[in-house]
Amino acid sequence: MERAKETSKLLKETYVSFQSIPSKKSMKNMRECIKAYTKLRNKMYLQLEVMVKGLYRILQGFKNYYYPISN
Description:
This protein is mainly alpha-helical. It has helices spanning 2-12, 24-38, 40-43, 48-66. Helix 2 (24-38) runs antiparallel to helix 4.
């Protein structure tokens, strides 16, 4: 009986999400952007830490665009 009450309570609760889901085209664009940034011949002179910080900025921008509200 207790389990039935819990199930009933869960069914009454509703979860709504307004997060965007990236399209295939935007995912392809993101991969191309990362590939362009990480081409070896363009970044040979950078230290690894600088390159990682640059990648982090790019990925953080994509994340903030598609998931503006994060917990």
